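Mods, move this if it's the wrong board.
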Amino acid sequence: MLRLYWEYVTQQQLEWRHVTLDDLSRFVLWLKLSSGSLKVLPAHPVPQARSNRTINHALTVVRSFYDYHWRLEEAVTNVKGTTTPHLPARARRYKSFLHHITKGSPVEKNILKQKEAKRQRPKTITKDQVKLLLDACCNQRDRLLVRLLSESAIRVGEALALWVQDVDVTENKRHSCDRGPLENGAEIKTIHAPRALDVSAELIDEIVAYVGSVHTAEVETNHLFLKRQGARAGQALSYTDVDALFRRLRAHTGLAVTPHVLRHSMLTALAEQGWAPELLQQRAGHASFQQTDQTYVHPSEEALRTAGEKTQPAVSLDERTT
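Not the wrong board. Structure tokens:
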């Protein structure tokens, strides 16, 4: 996020130590513009280049940066104080737990903060729809990648970071390892992502068959998934390649699917099958099971309907159902 801010500061020829509230307001507008320049404004309404959630995250980073340098007396502007006026206590929208103590205290408000849309329930697809995706794959590599993303519920970066030796064919396990910067730009997202996960014997068989047919003596990379055609054939698969694959699958099947939808779907299915929160946390590679539960695990409409039908006789006020 700081990289974006420095790009803006350089483009506007600002002295970073002396930024004003107007400069920061224009930074918010700059983040919203797809042109990347305040000199090129759209003639008609267009979608924002970044979501309000991303913009608020950028503002938090910039405010923390200036707060640090202001305390060191290296920055003239107190950005945190400038962007956070104190409003009268009556501006408080709710009564906190300690309201009787703080009810007279002024309320801080970040005037640059953008209103964020309520986070929607993540999309999921059914097992039959996953099979439809597999049938739509036109080669061995694509089918293996889709099956791995679905069955393991891993991030696309973890799949692209896989090396052949990360697959344990004896124990039917797949290991995620953080090897730092990789040739295809793949990355392990968090320190909790490196882990070993059990996979099916059928998936292992597909991996072995793929490696046997693709990883010839001419291949110089250890990456599991390789480009198939062109001048870069035999090199590591990239994020761009995966994006192109899922665009083809969406066009062929009509399903609004992404790699992350496969991850959502599997974690939700495992939760509905009774997996304990700590097991889901390990499967997802999260720091806490609360993050897994709040972000990825949501009961499907079918699960809610089944639960309702199961408990209806016990809670119904109609004597005929008892």
